[in-house]
Amino acid sequence: xxxxxxxxxxxxxxxxxxxxxxxVPDGADWSQAFIxxxxxxxxxxxxxxxxxxxxxxxxxVIVSIGPYFNxxxxxxxxxxxxxxxxxxxxxxxxxxxRFLDFVEGARLMQRGxxxxxxxxxxxxxxxxxxxxxGPGEQSDVVAAVEWAARQPWSNGNVGMYGKSYDAVTxxxxxxxQPAGLKAVVAQEPVYDLYRYLYxxxxxxxxxVATPALYDLIAGTPGPLADxxxxxxxxxxxxxxxxxxxxxxxxxxxxxxxxxxxxNLIPGAKGSPVPLFLTQGLTENNTVPxxxxxxxxxxxxxxxxxxxxxxxxRGNETCPAADPNDPTxxxxxxxxxxxxxxxAGFFDEVMRFYDRFLLGRDETAQDPPVAVQTFDGxxxxxxxxxxxxxxxxxxxxxxxxxxxxxxxxxxxFTDPATSGVWTISPKLPYDTHLAGAGRALLDVQTSxxxxxxxxxxxxxxxxxxxxxxxxxxxxLRQSGKLPLTxxxxxxxxxxxxxxxxxxxxxxxxxxxxxxxxxxxxxIKGGTLSLPFLTYKRTRTIQGDPGVEIRSWKALSATxxxxxxxxxxxxxxxLPPALQDPPPAVGAGGPNAPQVTAAAVKVAKAAAKRMRARxxxxxxxxxxxxxxxxxxxxxxxxLRRAGHTVAxxxxxxxxxxxxxxxxxHRGGRYxxxxxxxxxxxxVRVPVRSVRARLx
Length: 693
What we know:
Blueprint: H1 5-12, E1 28-36, E2 42-50, E3 59-66, H2 79-82, H3 100-105, H4 108-111, E4 114-119, H5 135-150, E5 154-163, H6 165-176, E6 181-187, H7 194-197, E7 198-199, E8 202-203, H8 206-218, H9 228-234, H10 238-249, H11 257-260, E9 275-280, H12 291-297, E10 302-307, H13 345-358, E11 369-372, E12 378-381, E13 390-395, E14 399-402, E15 420-423, E16 431-444, E17 450-459, E18 464-475, E19 479-492, E20 497-503, E21 519-531, H14 548-553, E22 555-557, H15 560-566, H16 596-606, E23 610-615, E24 620-626, E25 632-639, E26 642-650, E27 655-661, E28 667-676, E29 679-689
Helix pairs in contact: 5-6, 8-10
């Protein structure tokens, strides 16, 4: 996916860049073919087959299908601005260089894999009309995969590989389950094509630029010196290009039939196709909007890399500093450093393919889901969202804001006072957010098509807030508004606050150029945020991603008066993180520290212990409950997040009782902990107000 029409206009103003000559990779034979699809479309394919296999050997096939395999370059005349090669003349010495890094870096030919690059309809050497992930392109994916599985040199097992648009086609493969498809690697995809252009009606900066750029790519012929059949197929009907632009840029209604068929989330439900996903949780291009919903629906084997990075490949490294290119930053991104921060991407990808395309399983050494938190540390999880994530629901404060559509999500100079805020007290301990929050707002509009954005911030002791997650919506009417926020993984440290802001816009992301200049009333609502139950104390290999420092620099300033007025004493916070439960079964250095099996055992043990706190007269507090006889318990009394007293007791006759006496008013809570059948159990006790008389 590409973000800016400005880059395209720049590209048209500069001479064509010579192609980065991509000869046939070592160990490969290159050939071409046309694959029949629906609507009389013939899909052009470049095929690389390994030389080093005996004659007649059937090999596994990896297919990549998308708009970027044109022989003249990946992004047409936009190549110079998009840092991709462009040669409108030719002749070609080999196929597209788009995934040459993968072919060579993963040593595909040497491993005995074939690699097939297929032009979607309307792109490269394929005829037809581009379809933006619609029924036509979905048919192309099925046709290409099933063709690859049928070839006499194929073993019938096909994988898909891609990043961005050709990761979207990978998800189409997961949804459609064509015969022969065994595994998909999708880096930084879009789960719902509508959400690439709109935030539930609010235009993103992509909304106009992206359709125009793909029209440009589709309208680009192959090199003049290429085969006549290739260029004949590359010719595009101008009416088709205009229709593509109008269908996307002119339709902001998520419920229209055009967009429903391009929402890949429902189609993932029950799909058994194994999926290896990468997703930047701070992506401003193919954003993590729908990540959790897609994985919730998907039923097959899953692998993933998740963390704070932008639109990059798993193996991508920082380029050399270029004084003429402001996007190169040797401080944040020194030459050669991995942008995501974790080494071994191609090795993990090939073990994934080997398992499902060759039946050779060595994936036990790899983390199921490798997650990088904003402190730069990597850990292993068994799934996303993590198995021990629990939602805590906060009531949002009512209020009003003016729909000016000029609000920044961050501001370096002036305090971020606009919007309706709900802010937690200072956190008494660390909490760990993991997953996608869900809001339900009660909104009163005063004009049609008003803008609304919900942001979540991590606010430090100085009032500096870093955005953690967000979502936007175009308000077409008053009423109840459900929102699913972007997926996030974030540790809020003790002393910080969690702040929720409902306002009119984030100008760094949404393209709501003019607002209604009228008020929007938030009558109330809730936000449920998923927090981990257990600490994560074990890390895996990986360095901090290169985006962390720059993301944290995009901060909002909250003054003391705003924090005081918006603080909510009833803000729903999780209890303190518990120590991880004992492992169940075999593990390894990359195994998840907290597994579904361990959590299940811990929950079963926790059900055997209950506790209640009651306030009695003259400052007396009673903590009592049930626990297996003989269990040694530690009962802690807490006030304002701190332990103020603790006593040890042994459960007798299936129960226990501990008395405390306090001399200060306020609310007190408790924690009862003990070991039951080898499981450390920790039960939080709901707070009560002490009675001093």
